Amino acid sequence: MITTADEALLRRAVALAARAVELGDAPYGSLLAGPDGAVIAEAHNTVRRDNDISAHPELKLARWAARELDPDAAARTTMYTSCQPCGMCAGGLARSGLGRVVYALSTEQLIELNPESGAWPVPEQDGPALFDEARAPIADYYRR
């Protein structure tokens, strides 16, 4: 359930997205807030500026949280973001330990506004293969 406090923090994420546009970056902004609602980190999309396809604000903040927050603090932290995280960012969020994500625009709404947002091709994947060879380093690592 999205609260009035959540809406205020979402507005700040949207303002970060608007600021990104002013700076010449793509229109996406995110922030992390602790359980008391205090903002602890902010980011906006810098894909073009950094020439880095992973420079989405959600992924940058997920990486920051995984590096800087202990697991208990991460679990009590909420990400507020201007758009629903993409698949890349969702994977990073799952591994970050963050407890909650609140977003303004859904992926479907974003695609309605900008159809190219949903035009990413899915690469063909083949596998599994070479199980015995591939499992050796994995097994060695997890036996330690």
From TrEMBL:
- Where's the CMP/dCMP-type deaminase domain? 4-121
- What is the recorded name of this protein? Nucleoside deaminase
Looking up InterPro entries in the UniProt record yields: CMP_dCMP_dom, Cytidine_deaminase-like
Q: Which domain of life is it from?
A: Bacteria
Alphabetized SUPFAM superfamilies for the sequence: Cytidine deaminase-like
Annotated transmembrane regions: none
